[in-house]
Model the fold of this input.
Amino acid sequence: MSRLNRKRTKKAGLPSGSLVYTGERKDEKVSIHVIDYDEQNVTEEDLASVAACIPYRNKPTTTWINVDGVHDAAILERFGECFGLHRLVMEDIMNTDQRPKLEDYGEYLYIVLKMLLAGRNGEIQTEQVSIVLGANFVLSFQEGLEGDVFNIIRDRIRSGKGRIRKTGPDYLAYSLIDAIVDNYFVILEKLGDRIELLETELIENPTQKTVHKIYQLKRELIFLHNAVWPLREVVSSLGKQESSLVRETTVPYVRDVYDHVIHVIDSIDIYREMISGMLDMYLSSVSNRLNEVMKVLTVIATIFMPLTFVAGLYGMNFKDMPELDWRYGYPAVLGLMAVIAGIMLFYFKRKKWI
Done:
């Protein structure tokens, strides 16, 4: 998993409201995409500047402005001036290691949550999404990584399917949150498949790479827990209708998202317990294999102890040892050693030691 820890040292000592980007350094151009709609019409376009957003600020329709890229402080500052956003909001948008939270600024709500994406190599990538819900607009700020999970929302708006065109910006904000949460289940399904394969490997042929995979999964699940757990409080607060920006008709849908978040948290906790159990299983497997090896070596050493004694006894070569001059002395001693070894093997098997 990439970007588990963001660098915040660059902000140390700066006053509150300082616009400093804490994510991965990017040189790409910030893209601004707007979808403006009501029940009858949809307008969609890419904007060249923040100034082009001004006509949408007070329109009676619902406006969704999506910004890809939060590394340019100047552009975000213009957004703050255009929509009257607090300086701390702009700081939090650029600070990409925020925990999920909801803040009510009266005229608008500021929501932070984590969007999870599956990377090309199966690793989980995380991207911070900031949502600003106003009276007639929704602003969404993404870090500008590869893709997002909002295409299904865009398609609904374009086609007019469902309730989204008949409702206001609060339902749009709910839809964006719901799309992000639903994608958590996709990520969890992929993690579940990885855990099943790892269990099979652990039972059939555990190696040193197996324990590395276990620790990697454990690390990812800890991160997922930290990214999703605070979202429960965010969605719960949004569903209590404490703000006039969230209408009563939208509250049941928000509560449904809350149930999904609880389900995701429960699944993560179950997977964490499974990973801990797999780690214990691996350690037990290694210990059992070591015990089996030690048991075999102990049996071999025990069998050879009397044989070594016999070989040492007749290796002293004293002059008056009668067996030294006996014609059948050598085969007799070998036979005696074979009988002793056979008796000991029979005794060990009877005791079920081998």
